[in-house]
Amino acid sequence: MELQGKVALVTGGSRGIGAAIALALARSGADIAICDLQPTPDAEGILKAVTGLGGRASFFPADVSDFQRAQKVVAEVVAALGRLDILVNNAGINLDRVSWKMSEEEWDRVLGVNLKGAFNYARAAALIFRGQQGGKIVNISSVNGLRGQWGLANYAAAKAGLIGLTKTLARELGSSHVNVNAVAPGYIRTKMTDALPRQAKDDALKETVLGRLGTPEDVAHLVAFLCSERAAYITGEVIKVDGGQYI
Ligand code: NDP
Q: How many CA atoms are closer than 13 Å to the CA of 238, on its beta-carbon side?
């Protein structure tokens, strides 16, 4: 229960990797705020699971690409749960197409959610974390932000951009005792990857050296560690969770 008394905001926390992160942080004692486009049965299930673990849980509807809404959500989280200690920028989408056929809308939307969305919430949280001289930010990037991938110009650029954002925030907030890190998952089985062609799954499996695809919990374990005091001297890092996909 090393996060007892802490409050964590997880964007896109209703399902997939975000839901596993919300539950992992709750198991460590944190109260949980989830922000997602709209309340869904999935979100309801996660809130119930958190309260079942003895924590408090609240839902905040928001499109993370909306700057003004982000500033309000962070203020609403503090009003509802009393404080904010941990921000996990997890919300993300993919709209895959080879670059010479990619539309302006596909580029803008993926950058807007995956990269601007993280900036929007980090900016609001940074003010609070500076004021209280402490906090944790974890940005969910991707191995494809490190190596690029066919058909993912928008997604890979956004995930690479998150790494620049992570390192900059780590430098800017270090003197305020705020740790900022990025996690770069490989192929993790979620609704996002379930929608990909079978070939993508087979290729990813072949790339792993551990011989299996990742689970949301594989990512959540690392995020919970990075949000704990055991990781107090780790900042500005990008850590892969990919079963050796991109060694
Ligand atoms: P899912 O699609 O399963 O879940 C994404 C979550 O983000 C959903 O709850 C979704 O809400 C929410 N979301 C999407 N757009 C917005 C938005 N504009 N504002 C607020 N919330 C939003 O994805 P994963 O769990 O697989 O992915 C989570 C993160 O991990 C993403 O950033 C993804 O890029 C990253 N990642 C995933 C990998 C994988 O293999 N799965 C690999 C590497 C990185 P809604 O239900 O309303 O759509």
A: 21
Asked if 121 is an active-site residue, the reply is no
Annotation: CATH topology of 7-239: Rossmann fold (3.40.50)
State pLDDT tens for residues 200-213: 999 999 999 999 99
| Coil/strand/helix, residue 228 | coil
Nearest CA to ligand 1 atom 44: 142
55 C-beta closer than 6 A to ligand 1? no
In short, whether 112's Cβ falls inside 6 Å of ligand 1 is no
Question: By alpha-carbon position, which residue is closest to atom 39 of ligand 1?
Answer: 188
Per domain, the residue ranges of the chain are 7-239
> pTM to 2 decimals?
0.99
pLDDT by residue (tens digit) across 109-162?
Answer: 999 999 999 999 999 999 999 999 999 999 999 999 999 999 999 999 999 999
